[in-house]
Amino acid sequence: MKAMLIATSLLLFAGCTAEVGREMAEDECYQIRNNADREQCFKDVERTFENY
What we know:
Blueprint lengths: L1 H12 L4 H13 L4 H15 L3
């Protein structure tokens, strides 16, 4: 989970827009099979991108 957020942050620093980074992070969340983990992933994405 943390690795995904770090990777998303690195993509943002590399010049991607916040929207592209958010979409990539959400795509990763959709691949999680466990419902609780998937919901936590979406919450983490929301918290990460709330100010962008």
